[in-house]
């Protein structure tokens, strides 16, 4: 069966700098992938390119989602096809309440109980009437952002370091909502993790590493994380060279 997301020979530049270099990645249906990689290796760039943000210059290669080419589509069209990206740093918007946006994103034709359940799981009831992300703590912003993404019913969930700036309790709360969503709707995820904390909570079945502009290594996420902790990312390069 065709993978849900299929990336082939993707080369992406920011300005003159080549960030991703002939990168290949497949994500199957109902597959949960954790992406590791050194700081500034291009992890956020990869998610931005999948989402179609215009500061990422696609030089060559292809990105297909559910068998269709994505590269000609704008970010909102990609979102409508079923790709949801949780930002590392979501914006604050005065004058828009979380609940207003939540209703807009969820639409009228879905089960309101499901929305209520998500709000409850993410412990967001008390924030619904507040302005979006204004004067919220790091954990509150992340939980609010996750709600907005899940309400859009994505088939592929892209999470950019969901645990950054968030305490362990909030990581546990967010992971509960993510696991519930993944299992209920049999969706796929690509989750960037720097700290690895999320591994104790999210049921991910594959890990990979972004290194020198390419995806290298496909292994159990916990195995990759413990090797990175023990040997550092430099060894990833050596290990890749040995595999050749
Ligand atoms: P990661 O998420 O792995 O830490 P990024 O994808 O954010 O890395 O960044 C990859 C590289 O691209 C970094 O060297 C970063 O400084 C650079 N970069 C990212 N965004 C921009 C931008 N808008 N302008 C210039 N350089 C950028
Ligand atoms: Mg990043």
Describe the structure.
The protein is α/β, with parallel strands linked by helices and 244 residues long. It has a single domain, classed as Rossmann fold, CATH 3.40.50. It is built from 8 helices and 12 strands. The chain has helices spanning 43-51, 75-81, 98-106, 112-121, 138-151, 168-185, 221-231, 234-243; strands at residues 5-14, 17-27, 32-36, 57-65, 68-69, 83-86, 93-97, 131-132, 156-160, 188-192, 206-211, 214-219. Helix 5 packs parallel to helix 6. The longest helix is centred in the last third of the chain and has 18 residues, at 168-185. It is globular. It binds adenosine-5'-diphosphate and magnesium ion. Adenosine-5'-diphosphate binds next to helix 1.
Task: Let me know the number of strands.
Answer: 12
- Percent helix range: 25-40%
Domain module count: 1
Task: Please state the structural category.
Answer: alpha/beta
What are the secondary-structure elements, in order, as H or E? EEEHEEHEEHHEHEHEEEHH
C-alpha geometry: globular
Work out the radius of gyration: 18 Å
- Whole-Å distance between the termini? 27 Å
